[in-house]
Amino acid sequence: MPRLQTSAELEALRAKILAGRDPARPSIAVCGGAACDGLDSAAVAAALAAEIKNQGAGAKIDFRVTGCHGFCNKGPNVLVGPDDVCYFEVKPEDASEVITSALKGEVVDRLVYRDPASGEKAVHMSEVPFYKHQMRILTGDIPRIDPTRITDYIAIGGYSALAKALSQMSSDQVLQEVKKANLRGRGGGGFPAGLKWETTKNAPEKTKYVIVNGHEGESAAFMDRAMLTGNPHRVLEGLIIGGYAIGAQQGYIYTRHDSPSMAKHITAALEQARELGLLGKNILGSGFDFDVELHFDVGIFVSGESSALMRSIEGNPPEPRPKYIRTSVSGIWDKPSNLNNVETWANVPEIINRGADWYTSIGSEKSKGTKLVSLSGHVVNSGVVEVPMGTPLRTIVFDIGGGVPEGKAPKAIHFGGAMGGSIPIDLIDAPLDFDGMAKLGAPIGAGGLLLMNEDTDMVEIARYLLDFLVKESCGKCVPCREGMYQMLKILTNIIEGKGRKFDLERLADLTEVTSLGSLCALGKTSSDPLKSMLRYFKSEFEERIAAGSQTT
Amino acid sequence: MTDMVLQIDGKEVTATAGMTVLKAAQQAGISIPTLCHHEKLEDYGGCRLCMVEVESRGRTNYVVSCLYPVETGLVVRTRSEKVDKIRRVIIEELMARAPDAPELLRLAHEYGADRNRFEKEASFCILCGLCVRYCDEVKHKCAVGFIEHGHVREISFIPEIAAKECWRCQECFAICPTSYAQAAYLLTEALAFPGQRKKASAEAKRMANIPAVPVTFVKRPPASKPEMAR
């Protein structure tokens, strides 16, 4: 494909792509997301492709393998266009029936969703309860595109926000729009992205960097992976726009080394964007030069911490940097470096295209837009969920998640991954909101919602999460390395019936000093899960300690 | 350099921009305990013992003084109930590792720390990193390094380098707060290159005892980089 010289050429290319496509033509989208892949969706895709060939229907039907559709535990997922008929748990032997009926515009009845309780059918995506209650602004496009084809992304309006920013807006206007949209960082803290951008923009150094944090090392967090694997161009477009607003010349995508399809999709996206001139010198004739490099982690959790991540990009071991200076002022090679999470960047094209006023109309008072949530645990429907900020947890757990399986009662909601917190189920009407959740002791953090049923042993959950963090501590500072290790020992003792009466007092001291004294965010928040459990489920700890001291 | 006036423990202290709170306090004769700090080494911020309470723009924060830069109008409290508690718990945590280290015993006495508060798992090393950083930053040898991460992290001498370099240096032994650096070195020597240190020092002595013979000294230009000495 020739390099695009102007925004008009991008629009011409888009028109040409769309002219070659018939929106009314049947299409098959097989989910190739991590969960479906684990359920061997590749075999389903191969069977469907072979069947299309068999029936000689190549010209009559579109076929693509896409990123994650969202409904993970019902995989392999297949979506049949143009009416978005959802098939679940599809097997290779279903291929011929799926293709035949897709060509005829019919539905394979046995593959559609049935409510586990009422048996009620739901044929189309908009009727399936899991999808019905969502607002899929960021993820809705994933089933519509083959992530390895930039033409698919351009066909759905891709890079129009970049063209708009470069041709119609000054870098200050882009920044003001993001600030006005009150886009808050999705990486955990919810810090206003616009303010962070401004800090880097105003830093005196000329060389500046923008970075996508796609590390997502938390257990039970999988939505950034779904976003970046399923629609890498959306994240990339956001990054280029951010680079333009901030005045950066170089971007980095930092992500996991252990996810081959994600690496493949990002690499392809970068190559194709470069080929079209959406990366490189003089992007769309605007005079703006910008390129992006893909960088992999070294397989340790703490490399997702902002300063450790930047040290890793420099080629150093990913140890958090002990300086009281923000990375937005002095980051990679001491240059101003703006780091945002995958989801934050994915929001940017939407804000530029549809405006801050539209964006702020979604969400709660202080948290705008939608939020991706990794829904898992003792829940009927699990997967990647996108809801407006401010949505009550009840909607996510019951309407989308379908409640607890096997007729059990829910007991607690753990939110925010290994460094998040657990709240009792009676707080289920709490809205999903940065400040509200933080106040409850279960900050949005990594965005994982783990539902726990009545049989869950909270002491064991606390121990399990701590065990993960203890293994991931870098070991540099004492409160994180020794403090967490001592917490783990105390919890293990309590579980083994060797708890002692002053254990809770020791735990309180350890959690307090670890959160006040640790060097980086990992240490500072590592005791949050334990703190939340001591806040809401203290009696379970006391009972375990009392029971233990009786037996000894 | 601009001078800045800040307040440490109620005392007006003048410091230069870029200086750390720890340095400013030391200059004013106010002592703050440290374990991983060494004036010849880059600030590390690992032990967290030098944590102080700072008040800046109406907010109270707990920061490590060895890294926190001075600013005009900053109010620093080097002792408070919270600061003392943080130090006490840190000392107690470290005493599970090195229960008899004299430095820790002294600090435990000062801060009322209970050396038996946490379950002991004596490794005799508190991972302050003084030996590792001194060998790297001052001696440019890197004969000792960290291995592993988290609670299983430890220091380890690299036999190939240690066999060549350590017998005539041993400077890290003196700065180690627990004497573990020496023990770790001797263990490495006993396992990897037994007797070499004795042989080498005997050889050095023999060379020193050879009667001086007239030698013409050639003045050599100094090595430009310390690495050249290797």
Question: How is this fold's topology laid out?
Answer:
The complex is a heterodimer of chains A (about 550) and B (about 230).
Chain A: H1 7-19, E1 27-31, H2 34-38, H3 41-54, E2 62-66, E3 78-81, E4 85-87, H4 95-104, E5 113-114, E6 121-122, H5 129-132, H6 150-155, H7 160-168, H8 171-180, H9 193-202, E7 209-214, H10 223-230, H11 232-246, E8 250-255, H12 260-275, E9 291-296, H13 306-314, E10 337-341, H14 342-360, E11 370-377, E12 383-388, H15 393-400, E13 410-415, E14 421-424, H16 434-440, E15 448-453, H17 458-472, H18 478-495, H19 503-517, H20 521-526, H21 528-536, H22 538-551
Parallel strand pairs in A: 1-2, 7-8, 7-10, 8-9, 11-15
Antiparallel strand pairs in A: 1-3, 3-4, 5-6, 11-12, 13-14, 13-15
Helix pairs in contact in A: 3-4, 7-11, 7-14, 8-9, 8-11, 8-14, 10-11, 10-12, 11-14, 17-18, 18-19
Chain B: E1 3-8, E2 11-16, H1 21-27, E3 51-56, E4 59-64, E5 75-77, H2 81-95, H3 102-111, H4 130-138, E6 144-147, E7 154-157, H5 159-165, H6 171-175, H7 180-192, H8 196-209
Parallel strand pairs in B: 1-5
Antiparallel strand pairs in B: 1-2, 3-4, 3-5, 6-7
Helix pairs in contact in B: 2-3
How many β-strand runs of chain B?
Answer: 7
The neighbouring-strand order within the major sheet of chain B is 2-1-5-3-4
Question: Quaternary arrangement of the chains shown?
Answer: heterodimer
The H/E string of chain B reads EEHEEEHHHEEHHHH
Integer count of domains of chain A: 4
Count of DSSP helices of chain A? 22
| Average predicted local confidence, pLDDT of chain A | 94
Termini distance of chain B?
38 Å
Rounded mean pLDDT of chain B is 90
Count of separate structural domains of chain B: 2
Largest sheet of chain A: 5 strands, mixed
Distance N terminus to C terminus of chain A? 76 Å
Placed side by side, the strands forming the largest sheet of chain A appear as 12-11-15-13-14
The radius of gyration computed from the alpha-carbon positions of chain A, rounded to a whole number of angstroms, is 24 Å
Percent of residues in helices of chain A comes to 40-55%
Q: How does the overall form of chain B come out from the CA principal axes? A: globular
Please give the CATH class of the largest domain in chain A: Alpha Beta
Number of helices of chain B: 8
How much strand of chain B?
A: 15-25%
Main sheet makeup of chain B: 5 strands, mixed
What is the name of the CATH architecture of the largest domain in chain A? 3-Layer(aba) Sandwich
